Amino acid sequence: MPRKKKEECKKMPGWLISFGDLMSLLLTFFILLFSMGTISLEKFHMVIKGLTESLGGRRVYLEQKLLNQSNVPLEFPQMYPKIKRRKMLTKALLDIQQKLKKSGIQADIIRHGSIVRFRINTDKFFPVGGATPYPEAIPYIFDLCKRLKEVGFSVVIEGHTDNTPVRGGKFKSNLELSAERALSILKMFLQCGYPENLLAARGYGPYRPIAPNDSPRNRAKNRRVEFVIDAS
């Protein structure tokens, strides 16, 4: 007699395979949530240590006894030093701006992120076609240098002119004139004791106007010196 074939195992329903995959994914998901919810105190202490030191706080040393505590003691005797210096910078520029305006000299403060521009109109700072400041303008330059030196940010002194051609005199172009004016102020800053490594001078001539050179009033706006302060 022919042997009977063994009965093969019944195949699993298709939905059961999908269900098993779903359960595996859910298990993995909850294990991931659990691992994220469990905070390593040692790693947390390392993060706090880095943030504290970068913001000017005291150096934090890793001690085993701190890892067994729920609270990590921190000391911040010099916290936020740059914020304090920025406040000092703002106050200094506002004070000098008021002094200049009382003398009829236009001055503006422009902020772009951590860059602060202190813009001064040069009509009462320099003679036409000249790069030597008027005697009455020199005290303002030294006062500005003294106040900026207290905060210690780097400063780029920029010279700008309108598009009126230079005729005669020492300089052949507005570019040379603007550069020499910026350099003249830089030399005064050095006399004032400003750190040399924090200073730079640039001349742009008429190539970076802030107003169209289509009227005497607008051309006057373009004749300026800008102190670009990096407060970052």
Quote the distance from N terminus to C terminus: 96 Å
Strand order of the largest sheet: 1-2-5-3-4
Number of helices: 7
Query: Which shape, going by the Cα principal axes?
Result: elongated
Largest sheet: 5 strands, mixed
Q: How large a portion of the residues is in β-strands, by DSSP E?
A: 5-15%
Low-confidence stretches: 60-67
Which class of secondary structure composition applies to the elements?
alpha+beta
SS elements, strand count = 5
Q: How large, in whole angstroms, is the Cα Rg? A: 34 Å
Helix content: 40-55%
Summed over residues and divided by their number, the pLDDT gives a mean of 84
Order of helices and strands: HHHHEEHEHEHE
Task: Please give a structural write-up.
With 232 residues, the chain is an alpha+beta fold. The chain is built from seven helices and five strands. It is elongated.
Short description:
This protein is of the alpha+beta class.
Question: What characteristics describe this protein?
Answer:
alpha+beta, 232 residues, 7 helices, five-stranded mixed sheet
SSE layout and pairing:
Elements: H1 14-37, H2 41-54, H3 64-67, H4 81-102, E1 107-112, E2 115-121, H5 138-151, E3 154-160, H6 174-192, E4 199-205, H7 216-222, E5 224-230
Helix pairs in contact: 4-5, 5-6
